[in-house]
Each structure stands twice: as C-alpha cells, then as structure tokens.
Amino acid sequence: MGSLCAASEIAAGDSLAAVMEVLGPPPGEVAVGSRTLLYYERGRVELWDGKVVAADLISPQEADARRIKRQQAAELARKADEERRAQLKLKGRALLEKKLSDPAFLASPAGRRAAFWENFMRDYPDVPVQAEYAAALAEQRMDEAAQRAEEERAWQMTELQRQVDQAEQRAYEAEARSSYASSYAYNPIFIVPAPQPQPACETAVHQTPVFVNSRPHYRHDDRARGHRLSNRRVVSPPAVHRRLPSRAKPLSALPRVDQWPKVSTPLLDQHKRRR
User: Fold this and answer.
1) What's residue 180's pLDDT?
2) What is the predicted pLDDT for the residue at 230?
3) Which of 29, 89, 147, 275 has the lowest CB atom count within 10 Å?
4) Residue 138 falls within a domain, yes or no?
5) Which of 100, 94, 89, 14 is nearest to 57 (CA)?
6) What digits encode the pLDDT tens for the residues 166-207?
7) Is residue 131 domain-resident?
8) How many separate domains does the chain show?
9) For residue 271, is it within any domain?
C-alpha cells in the first residue's frame, strides 16, 4: 500500500484536514467509494474512510530540483522552437519574394494562386500574405462569375438553336404533308386527234392518241424537299400499219370513219373511266 515519508510530515491515521494543513489543497483528487487519492507535486497520499493509510512523498528539496529541471527543459524547448520559427520565417520570406517576382506565377490562373497562398499561410504562419491571398481570391470569384455567365449564354444559344430546329422541322413536315396531298390532285389530260385518212393509193397509217400531261408532276421526297420532277409525257406507241389490197379502190369504196376498227390503249381506257 506504500510507505509513509521519513520526515513524518504525514503520519498514518491523519485526517484529510491535517493533510490539507501540511500540504495544502491537492492539484488532483480521485475518490472511489471509501478510498481517496490526493496528488501533489511532491507525490501521492492515500486515504481510507478519511484517514491516511499511505503516503509516497519526496522531500521539498528534491521537489524543487525536479521543478527547476522541468523549467530548464521547457526553456530549451522554447528556444529551439523560436530558432525553428526564425529559420522558417526566413525561408518563407525568400519564397514570397521569389513568387512575387515570377511573371509566370503572376500570370497563372487566379484559382491556382489562391490555392498557393492558402498553403503558404499554413506552412509559413509568421510571413504575412493575407493581402495577396485576398486579391487572388477576389480575382478567382470574378473569373468564376464570368465563366458562369459565358456558360449561361452558351446554353441560351443552344436552346434557341434547338427551338429554331424544331420550328423548321414542323414547317418541313407541314410542307411535306401539303405536297403529298397535292400529288393526288387531278391532272387534266389532253387528247391529240388522229390525222385525216390518207387516199386509197397511199399507205394508211392509224395513229393512236397522244396524252400529254399539261403540268409538271410533283411528289414528296424526303431527301430533297420541293424537288421538281421532269414533265411526264406519254410517248405514243409505234404506228400501226395496215396493208391495203394490191389493187387500188375508189374512195367511195373505202369504209366510213365510224366503221374504222376501234383502237384501244390503257391510257385511253383510263381516261374514259375518269370521264
């Protein structure tokens, strides 16, 4: 449980009040049930039910020597820290002058310079660069605002172009529907009459009607809107030659016009059906 000090400053069985009177208030105290521990610079005192049962204390002279030793160690640490900070400050000033005289660094983006000054303040706290950091940060914010405005304008132009494309597509579809519907419109057909019959002594030639489309034909073509096709002209079929008898007959013996053989073609039949 420990040993009592030889100086008999604290004796076993002393009360807490007696300990306080000799050593003063303890810097640290721990109480667990009936057990109490008092911590002093010189050592520790243990009490049970308010009575001293053990004390581990050093002499005042030894305590003073330890205190002086700790103070000296702290002083050495403080001086070493001051020397380190002085060296760091010199290094930071040299780096600051180098960066401020570097054209490439000064012409770099504001965001990069702001990040550099932020790291500089953390690495060299004794070198003031708050003004440089604030200027770079303000310039970075202005650049970001300009970039956002440019992106907004680009988005507006893209949206406007999309709307124009949609309008052109709607107009194209409407024109295509109108052109497609007009292709079903009726186109008049003109019939070219056959020439008068030839004399009996000559070879008779029966010509078939020639149908001519009076206007050009349009049709819908996705690959080229409004493409005009060439006029569709129906070419007359080859002339039909009828061999006459070897011996010529008078004109009165020739058949009348209403007795001529009927000539039928697909286009003529189609025209008759339409009429």
Assistant:
1) 60
2) 44
3) 275
4) yes
5) 14
6) 999 988 888 887 776 665 554 444 455 555 555 444 444 444
7) yes
8) 1
9) no
| Residue 20 confidence (pLDDT) | 85
* Dihedral angle computed from the Cα positions of residues 197, 202, 206 and 209, in that order, rounded to the nearest 10 degrees: -60
Task: Give dist(CA 13, CA 50) in Å, integer.
Answer: 9
| Cα distances (angstroms) measured from residue 235 to each of 192, 208, 230, 231, 271 | 12, 10, 14, 12, 16
Which residue numbers in the chain have pLDDT < 50? 1-7, 186-190, 199-235, 240-241, 244
CA–CA separation, 144 and 136 (whole Å): 12
1 domain-assigned: no
Residue by residue, DSSP assigns 29-57 as EEEETTEEEEE-SSEEEEEETTEEEEEEE
**Per-residue exposure over 82-118, b if at least 16 CB sit within 10 Å of its own CB, e if not:** eeeeeeeeeebeebbeebeeeeeeeeeebeebbebbe
The DSSP symbol for 223 reads T
Please state the φ and ψ torsions of residue 120, each to the nearest 5 degrees. Answer: -65, -40
CA distance readout (Å), 90 to 5, 78, 83, 132, 150: 54, 18, 11, 18, 43
- Helical packing angle, 110-123 and 60-100, nearest 10°: 160
| pLDDT of amino acid 80 | 92
Strand partners, 46: 37, 54
Q: What is the span of the domain harbouring residue 88?
A: 84-142
β-strand pairing of 189-191 with 35-39: unpaired
